[in-house]
Write the structure tokens for this entry.
Amino acid sequence: MKIALIAHDRKKDNLIQFAIAYRDILKEHDLYATGTTGTMIEAETALPITKFRSGPLGGDQQIGAMIANNDMDMVFFFRDPLTAQPHEPDVMALVRLCDLYHIPLATNMGTAEILLKGLQEGFVDWRILEERRK
Ligand SMILES: O=C(CO)COP(=O)(O)O
């Protein structure tokens, strides 16, 4: 599965801790990230990550394009609800595309844990089943 990892600055530590804790599951998948998030997670976990531009410079939109192209399966986007983002429209667009294309999206640690454990247990195979139906 293709998984996107994104975190706003004050949530990056959260996502790094999450990636460390669940490294064994994440390493079985193809990982993508916005620039700074990806660089930091790679440094802490040594997981290979395809990195896009930094979020404020278009990285969210690059991941959104993958979703629109049916080329992304799951998104972990730890958003900071207390800090205004200069690229808020891009953030909302990414969340919107997840909803539009039924892409599982976790915006905080609580949901992320359930989503990743669900992935490990095979609870999110619908995209694979959908592919088989084509
Ligand atoms: O701003 C972001 C998501 O909206 C994240 O971008 P960076 O990973 O480059 O900090």
Summary: DSSP finds seven helices and five strands in the chain. The chain has one domain: 2-133.
